[in-house]
Amino acid sequence: MRWPVPGILLSRDERKMKAMLITREGWQALDRELKYLWKEYRPEITKKVQEAAAQGDRSENADYTYNKRLLRQIDSRVRYLVKRVEDLQIVDYSPQQEGKVFFGAWVELENEEGEIVRYRIVGKDELDTKLGYITIDSPMARALIGKQVDDEVVVNTPAGKKEWYVNKIQYKAFED
After folding, report:
1. Is the pTM of this model over 0.70?
2. Cα-flanking dihedrals φ and ψ of residue 52, to 5°?
3. Contact 53, 9 (CB under 8 A)
4. How many angstroms separate the CA atoms of 139 and 129, rounded?
5. How high is the pLDDT of residue 76?
């Protein structure tokens, strides 16, 4: 039997803590969404529900039914965001991180075929593959943590092991 490699298999508390990390930009985006939903969007939908309810029979009123459902969705998201924003730990850049891959880093990788990819390591609330954001819990991010420029990174994927080389590491977005 092989014992777990330290840092690869994490305890429940370590996994929970990683899931609670977020960049300052990510936290600000969640906070903006919460404020928009609560101060602008919810009052607008509440007004629509009230207007639709004033029209009489609610059972056959599509506007009432739709907006009431929308209001429940908004309330559900607001409850989630309130709790999440309180629980998240913001990770800011520190000059000590320079030259190594840590949370919040932008990393440019290249494989042997010359394919170049760029990723940013973020928390699960910020995941956006179109922007190249990957979660700290992803196999790629776990393989990258602590690496330096010119290091080789081996990532276990469902298609097998993939090798990448670290070209660049920075803590601000890449400029194209």
Report:
1. yes
2. -70, -35
3. no
4. 14
5. 96
